[in-house]
Amino acid sequence: MADSTVSAAATLAGNAAPEGAAPATTPAAPATPPAAPAAAPAAHPAAPHWLGDKAAPELVELMKTKGLENPLQLAESYTNLEKLLGAKGDTVKVPKDPADKAAWDALHKALGRPDTADGYKLTVPDGDAGVFAKAAAGKFHELGLSATQAEGLNKWWNEHAAEVARREEVNRNAQADADMKDLARDWGQGYDGKIEEARRAMRELGLSRDDMTALENGGYGTGRFMRLMAKIGGLIGEDAGLPPGANGKGGIALTPAQAAAEIATRQNDAAFMKRYQAGDKGAIAEMERLHRAKAGS
């Protein structure tokens, strides 16, 4: 009977041991190789002879890493380092104590802050009294800004403020144009008369062009200001005994003498005559109305 210890795989593969043969023995595992001896601690690099035998290991390592083989090379390396960092008199440390005013003052001075706020060369726009610039200079100095930084910020602010003012003027002019168109639509045929009433109010109240500009731009706006002035002018005309709307255009009827006086006033008004001579329709219509009133028509 065949040895039952023969595997089926071995039988099928044709490698079964013949009957009566001694079973094969498993070879012994090789012996574990002996452990490698522990590495000896690394020796310190040898110091260049010019350093002597008392140099610290890290200094010796630095000399080798930097390739400094003699005192001349060491001196050159130090010189280059000093050039990079600046001479002793040109260097300052960043103070660690926020309350150390003297140390911070020294740092700010080294970085270019003038001795006083007056040392900043700040510019102001035409017509500016410089109040804001003076206050800004004091704050710049307190914060330690250098002259270059402060003057650069000053230049930026002036340009920014000018651009903001320009945009505001564009928007204001556009709104004024829209307001005048609204007035022309609302007043219709009485537009010229209303404008004359507004001018009468201006004259009677003694308002200059600058006064009216300040009022118009100070919150009233063109439309509201014109309506207010026309209303005041109408009330003034009523108090003077001038019946409103008698000229057929919703305005104030003038006597020939009054019309003649108004014509003379217009002729002495350089701004009005400039508009009139340039063909301004409103100015021409006003003069025609005054001449009709002067003629009693």
Helix and strand topology:
Blueprint lengths: L7 H5 L44 H10 L4 H15 L15 H10 L20 H13 L3 H41 L3 H15 L3 H12 L1 H18 L16 H12 L2 H8 L3 H14 L3
Helix pairs in contact: 6-9, 7-9, 8-9, 10-12, 11-12
Descriptive account of the structure:
The protein has a domain of 107 residues. It is built from twelve helices and no strands. About 8% of the residues have low confidence.
Number of helices: 12
**Average pLDDT, to the nearest integer?**
78
Q: What string, H for helix and E for strand, traces the elements in order?
A: HHHHHHHHHHHH
Query: What profile does the largest beta sheet have?
Result: none
- Gap between N and C termini: 155 Å
SSE-based structural type: mainly alpha
Query: What Rg is obtained from the alpha carbons, in whole angstroms?
Result: 50 Å
Shape: rod-shaped
SS strand fraction: under 5%
Helix content: 55-70%
> Unreliable stretches, pLDDT < 50, 5 or more residues?
5-13, 239-252
- What's the total count of β strands? 0
Summarize the model shown:
By secondary structure, the protein is an all-alpha fold. It is built from 12 helices and no strands.
